[in-house]
């Protein structure tokens, strides 16, 4: 919502920024050998999308029915006996198709399409896809609810799309759910984190089918939490893949501005932070300095950690990136863009960044995406570009905007934009 006069816009900006920054616990200090104060932040579990998974797997004691081993043994027994009797703990299973989780919608929120083991078996019996204990991947449990959670890939059972569609469920792209999630709703953020964790595991299982040492077939172990080569002479173990990425807000302290960049794949008018993968044998700080120099020709000095975010919405070949966020202080200012990596990179003043945060209607984009999910679940998909929702109150397109609160880039940018230096000390607006 945007207001017709400047004072109200400022009040709205403060209210919006506060809702983001209240998730931070910040303090200012002067680091040794540093000429300027830096802001160190610790974030709550719900601050970043895909973090704070409420059913993250825990190592349980031997014999615990919620442990991966015990749950897997129960699963094998149930599948071999074709039993439909109630069990404890209960099993809930989330189907995926081509990286997309089964989803339902009750406006204003979407929800994951969990199935019981019996329901899943009934659906798969109508298809040519068999169900075995190795088809399912253990996600975790909730002791308080007496439930163990699993995920399964059903991409080969194409007829399930219409089966679920008749019940107003559909398979929705995780990026769409990411935008559609109300970041102020902790339950919805938890659902998103579960979906992200499940997608990362399933995509890793699909990608890691053969041993990289001998070429033998890899088989799931520990209820899908790791894999092992089936070759008796090899038996190489591998674990779920994580690809670390540094993402940095490069700061020109003297001129009170930051470096933002554009990639050709970005939606129109969106600017964000620099980012890049970490090379073997490289520290996080070294990666920040190298990537900034390679992509923008800027030399970086001090590097300060901010926060991190799981990012399971990349390509299937990289099923779960870990975005590690930093403030990076520039030692040089002349930009030399690597056109193979970036479309453009520019310095932006604090005022311009604040305007970008003010004008971008993140809540409107979230509501539009949530409405799209509802229409998809009803079988009526709307073809609307989400980038059209980032405009000013007059209806004109905003000159620029930054990624929404679902991305760590937003938190890096907004936490800098809403800090001021007074007498050498950083303070909130």
From TrEMBL:
UniProt enzyme class: hydrolase
Claim: rRNA-binding is one of the keywords in the record: no
Catalysed transformations (reactions): a 5'-end NAD(+)-phospho-ribonucleoside in mRNA + H2O = a 5'-end phospho-adenosine-phospho-ribonucleoside in mRNA + beta-nicotinamide D-ribonucleotide + 2 H(+)
Domain of life where this protein originates: Eukaryota
UniProt EC number: 3.6.1.22
InterPro entries found in the cross-reference section: NAD-cap_RNA_hydrolase_NudC, NADH_PPase-like_N, NudC-like_C, Nudix_hydrolase, NUDIX_hydrolase-like_dom_sf, NUDIX_hydrolase_CS, NUDIX_hydrolase_dom, Znr_NADH_PPase
Swiss-Prot/TrEMBL cofactor(s): Mg(2+); Zn(2+)
Annotated Gene3D superfamilies: 3.90.79.20, Nucleoside Triphosphate Pyrophosphohydrolase (3.90.79.10)
Name of the protein in question: NAD(+) diphosphatase
